[in-house]
Write a structure and sequence with these properties.
The complex is a heterodimer of chains A (about 425) and B (about 60). Chain A is mainly alpha-helical. Chain A has 15 helices and 2 strands. Chain B has about 60 residues and is an all-alpha fold. Chain B contains 2 helices and no strands. The two termini of chain B are about 25 Å apart. Classes of the chains: A mainly alpha (about 425), B mainly alpha (about 60). The interface between A and B is medium-sized, with 37 and 29 residues.
Chain lengths: ~425, ~60
């Protein structure tokens, strides 16, 4: 899809919507912190801040030069008589960009925030054991290589966006709000980190059963959900305008759909936990809310509100099942449920485009299914090995997990020298099997 | 097993790309894309299995 030329008022609207996106990052940071342990709370917040800072700096230095924007210079190869746009050809430090309110300049601002969001997702999976400097080093790889490369293919006029033009597959791979570029890329990186770091000490007993290690502050988590909601309203709306050619007048539909998806997913999660545990579980309901936001990202501009409720209900249910599946059956210790919330729900959101999206007069048909499947296959078959491989090499050079003593002591004391709550008694290692 | 799993993931993606480049009829493209995804899922299963925590490593 090619970007529309934006009027002055539309560019202003886009800028205002972009400025809401950092609230999504604030929400994720609070959720990550709240779902971690009290003895790692300050570390989690500082790591969030550092990761966002590193992501922004690396993205501006070299990320945008790989990602670019639709219609701008790119490295193209010809295969089977078709041109495949693989990677952008921009100058480092955004020197080739004119800051004139053009869609490309607005996209660069949005991407600088989006890559921060993507980088916050793995922090959740590595909570309580991922060293601060290793988080930053891993973020360099995400913001400098993995994210811009895939985002170019989807949002920068790359080969996934060209599937319609080259092969007549629907409207090409469609992802209005970043379900793939931000959420699934971040979620798959979270999965890689959970595998590389291994489970927290004491998480699994000798008989293989996981030990419940509850989050230390559910109020942070729920407030984080509210902040994330505002951020996602901006992200889904401006993403649809800049990357999916949606008219700015359709922002109202995007806002309604984003909210309905989050709400229905949270209520579904609350209902499921109410049935299973006799009381709704606040943490899992919050995960449901986030899953609804994530699932809405790809299709919010293209579906009816009634359909969005279905998307949200399925996202909420799938996330609860996935969290349990990862913890019990696959022995993946993901304290914040980031893999389920961002990767699983993100993939469901991408499939929902093929199932439910209405592109008006454009005939999508079965070609849209194929385009979405090609995009998902690329995430699993290319992005997951890439992000795992990069972090595996980093881990060989520089160990990412904190040592045993640090884990016993807590990340706050070990890495920062002071706890987050000095006046309160902090739980130490009552979860550790003796 | 881990390396084999990741190689299968990449191989599945290569099948998907090859289907787009080499095949022209939509049913054949669909069949090969689905086959590529099936290979990826097999690779994912191997990677997951390779990362299961051995019981002696649990505390």
């Amino acid at each position: 899809m090619t970007p529309l030329g934006l009027s002055h008022s539309s560019a202003t609207l886009c800028l205002l919507l972009i400025l809401l996106v950092p609230l999504g990052g604030a929400g994720l940071a609070l959720i990550n912190t709240g779902l971690g342990r009290s003895r790692s709370a300050a570390h989690a917040m500082l790591a969030s801040l550092c990761v966002v800072a590193v992501a922004a700096i690396v993205y501006v230095i070299c990320g945008f030069s790989l990602e670019g924007f639709t219609g701008r210079p790119a490295h193209v190869i010809t295969m089977g008589g078709k041109t495949w746009n693989w990677v952008a050809k921009e100058a480092f430090l955004v020197r080739s960009l004119q800051f004139d309110g053009s869609p490309a300049s607005l996209a660069a601002v949005l991407q600088m925030f989006s890559v921060g969001l993507a980088a916050l997702i793995p922090l959740s999976a590595g909570a309580d054991r991922w060293r601060l400097d290793a988080c930053c080093a891993s973020t360099v790889l995400l913001a400098g290589i993995t994210y811009p490369l895939f985002a170019h293919w989807v949002w920068g006029g790359g080969w996934l966006a060209q599937l319609a033009m080259n092969y007549g597959l629907g409207n090409g791979f469609v992802d209005g709000g970043g379900a793939s570029c931000i959420q699934v890329v971040g979620g798959l990186t979270a999965l890689s980190m959970a595998w590389i770091l291994g489970p927290r000490r004491g998480k699994y007993s000798h008989d293989g059963m996981p030990v419940a290690i509850p989050g230390h502050n559910v109020v942070y988590v729920l407030f984080g959900c509210l902040l994330a909601w505002v951020g996602w309203l901006g992200l889904n709306s401006v993403g649809a305008i800049l990357f999916a050619d949606v008219e700015p007048s359709r922002v109202a539909l995007v806002v309604i759909n984003t909210t309905l998806s989050a709400g229905s997913a949270a209520l579904t999660a609350a209902a499921i936990t109410r049935i299973r545990f006799r009381r709704p579980d606040a943490s899992l309901s919050a995960n449901g809310w986030m899953a609804g936001l994530v699932a809405s990202s790809a299709a919010a501009a293209f579906v009816k509100p009634s359909v969005t409720i279905v998307i949200g209900v399925i996202a909420g249910a799938a996330t609860i099942l996935a969290i349990e599946g990862f913890e019990f059956w696959l022995a993946v210790d993901d304290p914040g449920g980031a893999i389920s919330v961002h990767a699983v729900s993100g993939i469901w959101g991408l499939l929902a485009v093929a199932l439910f999206a209405d592109f008006g007069d454009k005939n999508a048909g079965p070609g849209q299914w194929l385009a979405q499947l090609v995009g998902i296959a690329t995430l699993l078959g290319f992005v997951l090995p890439l992000t795992y491989g990069l972090n595996w090499v980093l881990n060989r050079i520089y160990r990412q997990r904190v040592d045993l003593e640090g884990e016993r002591q807590g990340m706050d004391l070990h890495e920062l020298g002071a706890g987050a709550y000095p006046e309160f008694v902090v739980h130490t290692d009552e979860f550790i099997q003796r | 097993m881990k390396l084999a799993g990741f190689l299968l993931l990449l191989a599945g993606w290569a099948i998907v790309l090859s289907a787009l480049v080499l095949l022209h009829s939509p049913p054949a493209q669909t069949a090969f894309v689905l086959a590529g995804i099936a290979v990826e899922l097999l690779g994912l299963a191997l990677v997951v299995r390779a990362h299961l925590v051995p019981s002696e490593a649990r505390e």
